[in-house]
Amino acid sequence: MLLRNLFPLVIASALAEVHHLFSGFFSGSTIAGIEFDDAALSLTLVKNISSSSDDGSKWISLDARKANLYVGTTGYFQSYEITDDLDLTYESNVSLSSDCSNANFITASSKSPFTVFGTPYSGGCSTLAISVDDSGTLQETFANATYNSSAGVHGTALSPGNDFLYSADDMGNAVWVHSYDRQSGEIQEVQYLAAATGSNPRHLTVHPNGKWVYVVYEEGNSIATYKRDTGTGKLKFQNETYSLLPSGFTNSSSYWADEVLFSIPAEGSSPKYLIAATRSRTTGISGYVSAFSLATESGGIEEQLFLLPTTNSGGSANAVSPALFSENYFAITDSGSNFIEVWTIDGKDASVIAHLNLENGPANAVWYS
Ligand SMILES: *[C@@H]1O[C@H](CO)[C@@H](O)[C@H](O)[C@H]1NC(C)=O
Ligand SMILES: *[C@@H]1O[C@H](CO)[C@@H](O)[C@H](O)[C@H]1NC(C)=O
Ligand SMILES: *[C@@H]1O[C@H](CO)[C@@H](O)[C@H](O)[C@H]1NC(C)=O
Ligand SMILES: *[C@@H]1O[C@H](CO)[C@@H](O)[C@H](O)[C@H]1NC(C)=O
Ligand SMILES: *[C@@H]1O[C@H](CO)[C@@H](O)[C@H](O)[C@H]1NC(C)=O
Ligand SMILES: *[C@@H]1O[C@H](CO)[C@@H](O)[C@H](O)[C@H]1NC(C)=O
To answer: Which positions carry the signal peptide feature in this UniProt record (predicted)?
Structure first.
């Protein structure tokens, strides 16, 4: 009795769990089932899952209930049910018109009726609002968020209440805001914000407190901060950017930034980090990954914690994917050298803790557990 009190059985620091990820690929007909063991610090390819397409899975996204995986492949947004043994069963697709067939990005709602927003990346293409059935399987397009002929939207994000859709317009160098009515399904344009020449917004993410939208500028190789009005959903550019390249680099056109996401906090907490990366355009020359600390109350950026070279260029990926189980871990994909890694953040530093070579170029990975 006394001994048990003196030597508690639970050691708080070790997680000692196996976590599951799915990774899509830019080509082929396989989606990878991957495990990360946080005690052994190992990544293992456990399943080559056959997809119902021979043209890759260039963007994948889980639904909020983790019952379905949505996949963008040329010409289609597809829906797969996640089975108990973490396999995927193809269920349905929404087919795209031939002029907007580049299914490139998917945002799944966190609230009922769990609408899925799919964006083909090509000039003038709309974001499709796609309905799902009770089990989350994709049904049909019921509305569009429209842009204009100069727009080419590469990424979207929803507000915490799922009542506004934010679109990063890479070709049109702008950010668009649309309102979305969950009851009526109606989508309306609310705001268009041109970005400074040479920015090219690629992806964006809305802080869970609703007060900020952080945008990754692909051409600018930077993170830009936009203040959000929680009532109107409108944004105000803060004229504040943080570079994703070391100071002194004059060759920013040799890089193209790609992703920005928050670390995933425990329920009810505020994210600690904003994590972002840029790719180098030359295999053999590293891209960069960076994290910023965020103020707990305001959600504003406090400081850039680190800016580190990635293992290789990132290829067309270097897509960061924050872990579900700890804010200090994230995955990153490299399609130039065909691998996935897990990194850990330690104060103002970060490092690779697990590496898995793959036979093909991974696009983005999502954590299932
Ligand atoms: C997955 O496919 C690759 C390439 O064919 C092969 O090397 C690997 O052993 C397979 N892994 C599993 C778990 O099936
Ligand atoms: C899309 O759905 C149609 C109709 O069910 C089916 O014939 C086609 O094979 C599917 N294609 C893909 C790539 O999912
Ligand atoms: C959405 O846009 C597509 C292509 O622009 C069009 O074919 C479709 O009719 C639109 N759907 C709705 C519900 O507005
Ligand atoms: C697209 O819309 C924005 C905002 O109204 C405008 O500034 C831009 O010139 C438009 N581009 C085209 C090609 O219409
Ligand atoms: C941002 O700041 C720069 C440098 O002070 C200034 O030249 C530019 O006009 C500002 N842009 C906006 C949109 O406020
Ligand atoms: C860009 O310039 C830096 C500094 O001169 C150099 O180290 C780096 O290799 C260059 N990057 C590419 C992708 O060429």
So the answer is: 1-16
pLDDT digits (tens, 9 = 90+) for 281-303: 999 999 999 999 999 999 999 99
Confirm or reject: Cβ of 285 under 6 Å from ligand 6: yes
pTM higher than 0.70 for the full model? yes
Query: Degrees (nearest 5) of the Cα angle 205, 82, 72?
Result: 50
Q: Which residues on adjacent β-strands are paired with residue 75?
A: none
Structure tokens at 103: 């299914």
> Which DSSP state fits 99?
G
Indicate whether residue 280 lines ligand 2 (CB < 6 A).
no
Contact between residue 339 and residue 314 where contact means Cβ atoms under 8 Å apart: no
Residue having the nearest C-alpha atom to atom 1 of ligand 5: 239
**Of 14, 15, 13, 33, residue with least CA distance to 23:** 33
Candidate of 215, 239, 241 to mutate for ligand 5, largest count of ligand atoms within 8 Å of Cβ: 239
List all residues whose CB is within 6 A of at least one atom of ligand 5: 237, 239
3-class DSSP assignment, residue 5: helix
Cα separation, 340 vs 318, in Å, equals 9
pLDDT digits (tens, 9 = 90+) for 249-265: 999 999 999 999 999 99
For residues 261 and 205, is the Cβ–Cβ distance under 8 A? yes
317 CA distance to ligand 6 centroid (A)? Answer: 19
- Number of neighbouring beta carbons within 10 Å of residue 159: 20
Q: Look at residue 4 in the predicted model and tell me its pLDDT.
A: 41
Both structure tokens of 361: 């170029």
Tell me which amino acid residue 83 is. T
Length in residues, the chain: 369
